[in-house]
Amino acid sequence: MAAQNKTCCPNCGAGEIYAHESSGASICVACGVVVEENAIVSSVEFSEGAGGTSSLVGQFVGASGSKPFNRDRMQRGGGGYGFSRDSRETTLANGRRRIQDVASRMRLSNYFVDAAHRFFTVAVEKNFVQGRRTTHVVAACLYIACRQEKSQHMLIDFSDALQVNVYTLGTCFLKFRRLLGLKLEIIDPALYIYRFAAHLDLDEKANAVALTALRLVGRMKRDWIVAGRRPAGICAAALLIAARAHGFTKQHQDVTKVLRVCGMTVHQRVKDFENTPSANLTLDQFISIDLEIEADPPRFTTNRLREARAKAIQEKNVGLLTSGKLDDPREKRSSKWREIKSVTEKQKDLNALYGQLAKDMTGDGSNQSNSKQGDQQLMIQDVETVEANANGASGPDGNNQLVTQDDGALTRIQYPKGNNGKALVLPDEATAEELQKSIHPQAAKLNLEEWKMTMPLTQQDEIDDLFRDDEEVKQKEAIFNKMNKDYIEKQDRKEQERIAAENLQTEKELDDAAQAEEHARFMTSKTQRQLGKRRRDDKTVSFEDDGPTTEDALLAAISSRKISRKINYDAMSAIFDDSGTFATDMLEDNEPEKSFNFEVV
Predict the structure, then answer these.
(1) What is the pLDDT of residue 82?
(2) Of residues 549 and 101, more confidently modeled
(3) Is 71 exposed, middle or buried (0-12, 13-18, 19+ CB in 10 A)?
(4) DSSP letters of 249-284?
């Protein structure tokens, strides 16, 4: 028996407590109540086995574990603690360790580690890690955390750190984002400006170049160049233009190797910016002036050029097609679309083969001379034109060629194709499928009475119950109006207020028009009075000051204030004479005296 401790029984208060070491329980000797059960101690004890080996007494339970380590495996010399935690905890622990490893390579703080571990926990709960490499899932979780916090890290950075194909990581990221239903904001290219500007060897002008590149990115946003483009390409083009504007001789390969984008992508973004009005400004003007005009999206401009080419081909406008006005300035060889392509021997053989196959399929039994003549005409066409003819990719009028120029030289211009690879259809035209007649019969109107007579008598009453008559419709309408009385009155009140506001606005416009008309008539009468002043005698010498007359002062006061429609301009014009002073003709005192004769009766 083990020694007794000083613990008191909570039931009877006795102090005699028996401690059973094998089970870890403490029992009251007086009443038999179990005082403690499954006691866990922090001290570590070892016991010596028969072969002289030592083993741990008890079981070790981790702080975050739900099951103890296996003591039997430890006694068998399995190594370590004899891992016996459940699979989920093991997966989460391995995932956090790998997240910390990748975060240390990318120089990410513990905040990103905690955020990525929460995403990894959700991935484990939804079985997203099943059948996938843990490294790919860890990279996707970290990248989502970086996207949410808008850090300067791209997916290709994780690809370099883990030596994994970037498209593999991108596929895993997109599937995981779709699984979680996350709505991540579009990456702003301005986030990467300062990061990559430090790798271009710009010395002390790195900050100035970065500021100019940030302004270029903002201008590209307003000109619809950023929409639908990857941020790395926009950032590379902005840095290249800004570096050249500040006097650095940077080439495309200088920014492509830093941002790891294709050189053609940078070339296209630079071409897009060259076609905007901002490209015509100097560096000082670009920094100080904000143009209000916005350029059309590049794809919109390209589609309009393609439609103009198709329309010119239909109208057979040779002058417009060969003038160069329909060339795309974004392309390196803008006139390539109207140049004659050289036909190689291989293409001639393919053309002859396609022609022979087409003749065999159609069963054409023409003579040898016609066959040779057809082969000679077919040689001037390339493989793409023949395939387009086979697929029906010709213009709406069936012409794929433009016959002659003014000088008589044979010129071939292929009819432009749409994004689907077929002939381009103009907005005001219909496609071949739309012009075809419908093969489906038109839906006939159902006569309810005739259809109801074909039904059994037991079902006719049920059919009648499905439809309401006019009386039931009126009852339903009355019930609806009563239940929604407040809403209907509110809508009627809004409609009346709207009509009153419109009437008030109309009256105001009419008053303004009347005031303008009165003012114009008054100004006309003023001009006539000024002409009358010239009739004054030039010999008369006036010793008075040539200051403004009363009429001029009154007109100046009226023009400086808001014109009122209550002023009678005709009456006001009549109170002045030709000299600009008050007229006394209209006064009652100057009226001639009337003589009255009284007859005395």
Answers:
(1) 42
(2) 101
(3) middle
(4) ---HHHHHHHHT--HHHHHHHHHHHHTSGGGGS-HH
Residue with more model confidence, 289 or 376: 289
User: Can you point out the beta strands (E) in 318-402?
Assistant: none
Contact 424, 418 (CB under 8 A): yes
Helix (H, G, I), strand (E, B) or coil at 572: helix
Q: Where are the beta strands (DSSP E) in 21-147?
A: 25-28, 34-36, 45-48, 54-57
User: Is the distance from CB of 555 to CB of 576 less than 8 angstroms?
Assistant: no
CA angle at 395 for the pair 389 and 399, rounded to the nearest 5°: 70
pLDDT confidence of residue 167:
93
Helices (H), 315-362: 318-322, 345-362
Both tokens of residue 62?
Answer: 């981790």
The token pair at 458 is 């037991």
Q: What 8-state DSSP symbol labels residue 231?
A: H
Give residue for tokens 């401690």: 19
Choice between 585 and 216, residue whose per-residue pLDDT is larger: 216
Residue with tokens 């750190």: 161
Torsion on CA atoms 425, 427, 432, 433, rounded to nearest 10: 120
Query: Is 60 exceeded by the pLDDT of residue 439?
Result: yes
pLDDT for residue 335 is more than 50: yes
Using an 8 Å Cβ cutoff, are 57 and 72 in contact?
Answer: no
Residues 6+ away with beta carbon under 8 Å from 414: 337, 384, 385, 388, 400
Token pair of 462, please?
């049920």
How distant, in Å, are the alpha carbons of 463, 466, 478, 481 from that of 475?
Answer: 20, 16, 5, 10
For residue 356, the one-letter residue type is: Q
Judge contact between 70 and 45, C-beta under 8 A: no
Cα 20 to the chain's mean position, in Å?
72
- CA dist., res. 138 & res. 136, Å (int): 5
Classify residue 558 by burial, with Cβ atoms within 10 Å: 0-12, 13-18, 19+: middle
Residue count of the chain, please give it: 601
Long-range contacts of 508-512 (CB under 8 A, 24+ apart): 511/565
Instruction: Decide: helix, strand or coil at residue 188.
Output: coil
E strand or H helix that includes residue 73: helix 71-75
User: 305-321: per-residue pLDDT in tens?
Assistant: 888 888 888 887 777 77
Model confidence over 512-563: pLDDT tens digits? 888 888 877 777 776 666 666 555 544 444 444 455 566 666 666 665 554 5
> Residue 94 carries which side chain, given as an amino acid letter?
N
pLDDT at 377 over 50: no
- Comparing CA positions, the residue from 7, 6, 10, 40 lying closest to residue 23 is 40
Quote the CA–CA distance of 429 and 426 in Å, as a whole number. Answer: 5
What number is the average pLDDT over the span 460-479? 84
Cα–Cα distances (Å) from 116 to 110, 112, 119, 194, 341, in that order, read: 10, 6, 5, 25, 56
Does the pTM surpass 0.90? The reply is no
Q: Is 403 helix (H, G, I), strand (E, B) or coil?
A: coil
Q: Tokens 């005709």 sit at which residue?
A: 570
| Residue whose entry in the numeric block shows the structure tokens 């009385």 | 485
